[in-house]
Amino acid sequence: MYKQELLALCALLIIVIGFPMSVFAYQYVYLPTTHGEIKVIDLVARAPEAGGWDPEYITVNRGDTVRLRIAAHDVVHGFAIGKLGIDVGSIIPGEVATVEFVANEVGQFTYYCNVWCSPYHYRMRGTLEVVDPADPDAFPMTEEGVDFSELDIDSPHEVEFYPANRPSAARGRALSDQIELPALGDLRSQSPSAVFQTIREGEAAASLSDEEVWDLVAYLWSSATTPEQRAQGETLYAKNCAACHGETGGGDGPGGRYLEEQPIDFTDARTMAGGSSEIYYAKIRRGGMGTGMPYWGTIFTEEETWSIVDYLWTFLFRDAETE
Ligand code: HEC
Ligand SMILES: [Cu+2]
Question: What distance in angstroms lies between residue 48's CA and the mean position of ligand 2's atoms?
Answer without folding.
Answer: 8
